[in-house]
Amino acid sequence: MQMASSLALRFRSHFLRTASLLPSSLRRPPFQPSPPLLSAHRLLSTARRVAPRPRKSVDIGARARQLQTRRLWTYALTFSGLAGFVVIVLNNFQDQLVFYITPTDALEKYATNPTKARFRLGGLVLEGSVVYPASKPEVEFIITDLITDIVVRYEGSLPDLFREGHSVVVEGIVKPFTEEIKKEVSTNKVSEKARRLECYFCAAEVLAKHDEKYMPKEVAAAIEKNKKIIEEAAAASVAAEAPKTT
C-alpha cells in the first residue's frame, strides 16, 4: 500500500516537471469568459448615433420684434386691400347713381366734368316747344327751370300724361350739339334761347304727371326759388321805371 502511494506521488511529480518544460505555445490558455453579445437594436442605435451639434444661442427679444414686425405688415396689407376694395366699390356705386337736377345745375355740372353727365333732369315743359323733326324719328322739346332752358331730344313714344306747361322728369345724358343738329333750322322761336347753348339733353326715358307732386323735392324747390327771383326782378324793374313815368 505504501509502495503504491509512493509510486503515484513520483509519477505526479514527474508529470508536472515534464509539463513545465513544454513551450508556452503548446500550453492550454486558461479559461476566460467571452464578452456578452450586443443586441441588434443596440448595434443599430450605436451606428446611427451622431455627435450632437452645438446649440445656437437664441435672442428672444429679437425674435419677438421680428414677429411683431411681421404682424404689423400683415395688418397693414390687409387694411390697404380692404380700403382699396371699398374705394373701388364706392366709385362704381357713385358712377351708377342718377341725381335729380335742374337745367341750370345740369349745365354747371357738364361744364365742370363732361365725362359724368348722366342725370335725371327735372323741370317744366316749355309751352309751344314740342316739335317733331322731319329728318329723324325723334321728338324735341324744351325743359326749363324758369331761368335756364335746355333742348331735350327723345326717340320713342311720349307718355300719355306728357303735357306742355307741366312737370316732367327725363333721364339721360348731356351731349354737345353735333353739326347735323346745328344745321337744322328751327322755326320755333321758343327754342332759340336753348339752341344758343353748346349742348343738349339726350333722354333715354321720359316720366310725366300732371301734378307737381311727382317732381323731386330738390327740383320743385329750385323752381319755386327761381319764381321768387323772377318776381323780385320784375318788381325791382317796375319800381325802377316808376319814377321815370312820374
Structural write-up:
This protein is of the alpha/beta class and 246 residues long. It contains 7 helices and 6 strands, in the order αααβαββββααβα. It has helices at 2-21, 40-48, 60-96, 103-112, 179-183, 192-195, 217-245; strands at 100-101, 118-125, 139-144, 149-154, 167-176, 199-208. Strands 2-3-4-6-5 form a 5-stranded mixed beta barrel. A hairpin with a 4-residue loop joins strand 3 and strand 4 (149-154). The N and C termini lie far apart (196 Å). The model has no long low-confidence stretch (mean pLDDT 75).
- Overall structural class, as computed from helix and strand content, comes to alpha/beta
Overall mean confidence score, pLDDT? 75
Residue share in helix: 40-55%
Radius of gyration: 56 Å
Biggest β-sheet, characterized? 5 strands, mixed, barrel
Strand order of the largest sheet: 2-3-4-6-5
- SSE topology string: HHHEHEEEEHHEH
Low-confidence stretches: none
Q: How many β-strand stretches?
A: 6
- Report the total helices: 7
- Portion in strands: 15-25%
Shape: rod-shaped
Terminal Cα separation, in Å?
196 Å
TL;DR of this structure?
With 246 residues, this protein is α/β, with parallel strands linked by helices.
List keywords for this structure.
246 residues; alpha/beta; five-stranded mixed beta barrel; 6 strands; rod-shaped
Strand and helix map with partners:
Blueprint: H1 2-21, H2 40-48, H3 60-96, E1 100-101, H4 103-112, E2 118-125, E3 139-144, E4 149-154, E5 167-176, H5 179-183, H6 192-195, E6 199-208, H7 217-245
